[in-house]
User: Fold this.
Amino acid sequence: VQLQASGGGLVQPGGSLRLSCAAPGSIFSTDAMGWYRQAPGKQRLFVAVITSGGSTNYADSVKGRFTISRDNTKKTVHLQMNSLKPEDTAVYYCNARNAYGSDTWGQGTQVTVSS
Assistant:
């Protein structure tokens, strides 16, 4: 596994969490980095992406609540998640996609939003 994800946990509705994904320089410097999530019994879905140039895109369900960012010094991508809802509960996966469309996945990190 080349991508190391961390930061998941249990949080109450309305709370915040920050996920982090560390990548080797060979991937981080060239690939678009993103997050996907998979709820139990459902497909893995796109959440957010940031390109090597810093452009971002978000799923409609998280726009205005989640922010993806890159720390070029630490070769890490962060997903700041605010105003969390129970429907955000899922395993979150870090993803790197190169210019050829080839994916690298990290291990998942569980996010549970519950009172």
User: Anything to note?
Assistant: The two ends are 33 Å apart (CA to CA). The first helix runs from residue 25 to 28.
